Structures are given as C-alpha cells and as structure tokens.
Amino acid sequence: MAVMMQGFYWDCAKEENRLGEWWNYVAEKIPSLGKQGIGFDAIWLPPISKGASPGTMGYDPYDYFDLGDFEQKGSVKTSFGNRAELESLIKTIHENGMGAIADMVINHNSGADEEEENPLDGQKRWTKFNPKSGKFPRNWDCFHPSRYEKVMLEGEQFAGFPHLCHRNPKVYAAMYEYARLIIEDLDFDGFRFDFVKGFGAWMIGLLAKYQYQKKDNPNFSPFVVGEYWSGPDDIHDWLDAVSTLTDSQIAAFDFPLRYKLKDVCDTLNYDLRNLTDGTSVSAARPFNAVTFVDNHDMNDNFVTNDKMLGYSFILTQDGYPCVFWRDYYNYELARPNTPNGIDALVQAHHKHAGGESCILHADPDLYISQRGGTEDQSGLIYVLNNLGNQWSGTTVQTKWPNTRFIPVAWDGHDQAHPDERSTDEEGNGEFPAPPRGYCVYAPIFE
C-alpha cells in the first residue's frame, strides 16, 4: 500500500530551466501526488548539499552543511534551491500525507580547496576542504589512506574522488551531525544511501539505529534504502550485514529485477519464465526490496520500448515500487484519467495489490500471477502478454470461486477494453491481456 516517487532525474533543473528553483517546482506537484491526489506515500529528493561546482546534481559533495545559503563554489543556492525553500517543500510533503527521503552521499567528496601530500604514501591529492559553513573542515587524514585505516579494508572507491575514511572519529561524528540535521532539523523521514558498496555496512547501521528526536516522535526510526548496484548475492550479503547492526527497516534497490524488466520491455520474445527464477531481491525478501524500472543513473541504459510493461509488474508484485519522475512527467506515462498509465496502476496497487503473491502460470510469452488480498485490499489477477500481435491468456485456478472480475488497469499494442471475467465453482477462469501488454483484474465481491 505504498509507492515512492523519485523526485528528480539527471540534470533535471538544467533541462527544465529551473536551476535554483527545483524545490519550489516540486512543491507545486505535491498536492496532486499525495494522499488526496494519486496516492504516492513518499518522495525521494536529490542531494541537498552544495556540490563542487554550479549546476551539479550534488553527488560531488563539497560542503554538507551548506544547503544553498553560502556563496561558494560559484553560487549561493544549490542546483535545487536553498534551505528555506527545502524546508517549505518538506512541510508541503507532510501536509499532503507523504514522507520525504534524503539522498545521502557520504562515501566520497569533491571540489577541495587545496592539494596536499598524504604522508602515509607521499601522494598528492585534493583533500583540503575549508567550507564556508564552518562545519566539517577536513584534510588528508579524513580520507583514504588514513592513520585510522592505512589500507581500504572495506568498500570501493568511486571514480577519482577522495574517499572518506569513516573510521576517523571526526568523519563519523560529522556524518552523525549531518544525519541528525536531516532528520531532526529538516524533518526528513528516511535516507537513500548512495553507492553503499563504497563503505562499511556498520556506518549505515550506526546512522539507522541513532535515537533521533523528532518533535512529534522522540523514538523515530528512519526508513533506509541502499544503492548496492550489483547482483543478487552481493545485495543479499549487504542486507544481511546491515540487518545484524540495526532493528530498523533496511531495504535495497532491486537491480536484478530491474535488468530483467528492461529485457521484458526492450527484447522481443524474451522468455517470461525468467521472472520466476527467484533471483530478484523482491522474490527472496519482499519487505527489503525497492523495485524500479528506471532511475537517474540509467542515462546510458534507459528502457526504450513498452516501458509500461515494467511499471505494471512493479506496481502489482511484491516490493516497494518507486516511480521515476522523468517517466511520470516528461515521458507522460502518468496518463491521468485513463486505465492505461501509471496513475491507474498506482490506484490498483493501493486498492488491490495486497496479500500473498502466487504465480499461476508462466511460459515464454505469458505470465499470470495472483495477489491474495488483505482485509483492506481485494487482491488481483495480473496478466503479462509478451506476444506482439495478439491478445493472449489462459485458464488458471484462482483462490476465488464463483467470482466476477473487472479490469482496472491495462495497456498494450491494442487498447481495446478488456472484458469482465468470472471463475467457476473451483476458482478457474480465463484471463487475457493485450499484445505486448498487461491487464490487472480485480475481484468483485457481491
């Protein structure tokens, strides 16, 4: 019963001629996205801190505590705005029944003011930082190699950026203060951690378990999702490592599923039985998976065909689905007031996509699954048809005998209205979907 919006894409403020105004622009959209609108429950915002140069996305952090109020690195505001505008946006998010998720880039820095020699190896690096906020000035010992960890024992380096050594008490104290600012002062509700393979799971465990003191909740635990861009085994190992350190809800982006969905959308005759092999995060750990079709990092690898097939899957199956701003708005896949877009699928997700998941049928061209329903959600039958030239379906045995089903969301290369279906006394019924399309059927209890 939850769907997240990724509230940005790469160079979004530049592309839409809204440099320094993105927070205000997003705020305008929140009422239509929130509880009284389509029903998104949270929005993930881009990095909030000053980057190394004007117009950057914030994944090159220079001053963690400059939220757009100090003139440095060529600008006063960040690419997205200033602190007052961010606070106003978060207030609007909460007023509309949504949570705000902060993007945490804590493994690397950029834009140092001076180059200096690291005495441990004699190499010169750009590691002298004198931020105008006055908080977290740093030098070579805050980065690898450091006296606290001469050799990087955990994590990978990101590009050529200086890589923070979290074992330095000064560094992890600054990260605590930054996390506290985000949750307590700015009133965010959770974290998305960037490039988590770049630092130890213990760091996320510490930040997740910290007893944040929100005004209305003195024992607040933030939602946490990590970007571990790898295969299923690595992601499961990371989730296991973090889970041993915290009682908080920890999730990971489901990259294995995303690449399967890209193949579903972009590869004709892709074998849909690959969706049943159990290698996705959501298949193995449904409560620890954030599922998605595209995001800002997929610039060179976007899904380019039949993208609604991917959205139909993540919004009906297990996991916490995340919708990409660019798909929803720029590529106009919301398709409001129709049964053929993301809006209809979000509404189907809230009303029907609850309960146990069960695959009822899978062959190379046809996938049918069931959500068993809960006290608040009716359940559904989901049909995905990979054939490019004809409607396709088959008879399956559902959990609902003698029940009428209505189509609530569908799309494909033929947008004819699907017929209502019904099951017999044993729960058997035939459920079809359009060519290169999908259909979501909801049971009607009369």
Q: Can you give me a brief rundown of this structure?
A:
By secondary structure, this protein is an alpha/beta fold. The protein is built from 11 helices and 22 strands.
Structure write-up:
The protein has 446 residues and is α/β, with parallel strands linked by helices. The protein folds into 2 domains: 4-253, Glycosidases (TIM Barrel), CATH 3.20.20.80; 357-444, Golgi alpha-mannosidase II (Immunoglobulin-like, Sandwich), CATH 2.60.40.1180. It is 24% helix and 24% strand. It contains 11 helices and 22 strands. It has helices at 12-15, 22-33, 83-95, 169-185, 201-209, 232-243, 255-266, 281-284, 307-314, 325-330, 342-352; strands at residues 4-6, 42-44, 50-51, 61-63, 99-104, 114-118, 123-128, 190-193, 212-214, 217-220, 223-226, 250-253, 289-292, 320-324, 357-363, 366-371, 380-385, 392-397, 404-411, 421-422, 428-433, 437-444. The strands form 6 sheets. The chain has an 8-stranded parallel β-barrel with strand order 1-2-5-8-11-12-13-14, surrounded by 5 helices. It has a 6-stranded antiparallel β-sheet with strand order 15-16-17-22-19-20. A hairpin with a 4-residue loop joins β6 and β7. It is elongated. The two termini are 24 Å apart. The relative contact order is 0.09. Residues 412-435 are annotated as: Disordered. This is Alpha-amylase. Pfam families: Alpha-amy_C_pro, Alpha-amylase.
